[in-house]
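User: I'm writing a tutorial on reading structure tokens. Could you give me a worked example: one chain, its sequence, then its tokens, then a sentence or two explaining what the tokens reveal?
Assistant: Sure. Here is the example chain.
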Amino acid sequence: MLQFRSKIRATLAVAFSIAAAGVFAQNIQIGKPDRFGGYPTDHILVRFKSGQVPAMLRAGSSRTGDASVDRLSARWAVNDIQPVFPQGFGDPARAERLGLSRTYSFNVRLGADVKQMAAQYSSLRNVEVAEIDGIGGVGFAPNDPLVGNCWGLNNTGQDGGTADADVDAFEAWDLWRGATNFVVAICDTGLYEQHVDLVGRKIAGWNTHDNNGDTSDGFGHGTHVAGTIGANGNNSIGVAGMDWNTKIMPVRVLSSGGSGTEAQCAAGIVYAADHGANVVSMSLQYYTGSQAFRDAVTYAWEKNVLLIAATGNNQGHIVAYPAKFPHCAGVGATTRFDTIASFSNYGPETDISAPGEDVLSLWPGNQYEYLSGTSMATPHTSGTAALVFSYDRGQTADEVLSVLTSTAEDKGTAGFDEHFGWGRLNAFFALQKVSQPLVGFTSMNVTRGTLQSGTVGNLFDTDDVRVNMGAKAPAAIATASAQLQAEGAAPNMTFNRLQLLVEGSASAPGV
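And here are its predicted structure tokens:
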């Protein structure tokens, strides 16, 4: 039997800084990093001077043989160097004269200070120029005819609002639009499932208010919430929700008049947790906080369900239940001007805030309506949570909430405050954080066995781009082992994981 063992050690990244001899400047307005109009933070472009391309420079390596370049690369933890034009040139002489054949991408972990990095490389003797790259392209925008009215998704200053006072949904959709095997339960007034903007999205739910299977919406509130979470996007109809693929489980806990008890909501939470919900969205407010209600929240949380609820409306310095409970996120409401809404309850249990004033979404009878409230802020957050959670299903509910709060745009008092929580939701930033590499490997060493092929760069890849190792054992020995030690820098997250696939094979004479 051939046995593979792996030993992988993740260490904290250490930041180095050295004085730059040159000055790095751009003569144009540069946008924000890692987004359309800005620049990527995982590489720079380095052009060597004519005749000075290091002889040892090979694609896939992190070293060049030029001592000054390699010293600086070690400080910046460069993990891979690739030619910018790997296909070569039909006119090599012209490419050499223009410097194209001497230009390489020096790749690092996402989030590096690439402007400083480029300045330092530009100062090296054999480097002609080092520069940041740029991000452009089509820039996805859905074709839903009313989506331009959804300022919370993409605020261009429409109706006198503040540009970019939104959750950056358009930018988030360039990264991920959700998964069809993910479930968001909506504890509310039910769902108008025939809505043309919800085709194919509903799965079976339950009515805990009347204890039957009737989840129809005679009030409209639940349908409005569902639209913000998951209205079909880019279907040339109406609006677009935060997540275009998640399944929606209607759990009716309120009457057709919009009222119900904490016990009925508690029963809805338990139903959702027991029937496959990953996120439970509750645009509801109660002010008693019964033990049964608290325990139902804990029940779902222990099953790794993320619960998200409104802080409540028009009550001032108090957060409503269930948002007030531990293990349930509390969401306040913001305006199109990036201020906290006047009606939004607040308090120490506020975790985050999101657009909640004049929000356009679905309404029974294939209609669309504007509503305001922390009820409207909550589904923006729940839909974003669905995107983040479905992107990496290995996360816990608490980790998903940590991603949302740590990537929120700070508003109001610096840091946490009782109105905005940790800030206003940003779906794009949240997806960026959860999609960055979990571990950036910078070196590997075969401590037992034989390296047959592969480099440290191949540790990031799949689809048959791999590191191959081998070990042989005499017939009298039962096992042989190969051991690889890889080291790297973990991203700056509240949680870190390693994901590793190891495949082994063995052969014996006559078998």
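What the tokens reveal: Residues 1-29 have pLDDT under 50 and may be disordered. The CA atoms of residues 254 and 260 lie 5 Å apart.
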